[in-house]
Write a structure and sequence with these properties.
The chain is mostly helical. It has three helices and no strands. It has a domain of about 30 residues. Helix 2 runs antiparallel to helix 3. It is rod-shaped. The termini are far apart.
């Protein structure tokens, strides 16, 4: 008995065009995935992150709070952060 393989194995004559269509579909999916891949669109912060101490310093500098209020708030915040 002679066994041989041809393009008409399982699907008959449709196997050639079907494999070509699958290859094209796979290539299209890969191209679309590469073009539509999510880029890192997160924007960096607009400016430096300000700490509560910097904010208090600015309020004191502008005269929005007195020195006593500054010291009181600093002690309260330093105490609350020391607990954590």
């Amino acid at each position: 008995m002679i066994f041989y393989s041809s393009a008409m194995d399982w699907l008959g004559i449709a196997s050639g065009p079907l494999l070509a269509a699958e290859l094209l579909a796979f290539c299209a999916i890969v191209i679309v995935a590469l073009l539509c891949s999510p880029y890192d669109t997160r924007e960096p912060p607009a400016g430096p992150v300000r700490t509560s101490r910097a904010t208090r310093d600015q309020h004191l500098t502008k005269g929005e709070i007195t020195r006593d209020e500054y010291v009181e708030r600093r002690k309260a915040l330093d105490f609350s952060t020391a607990i954590l």
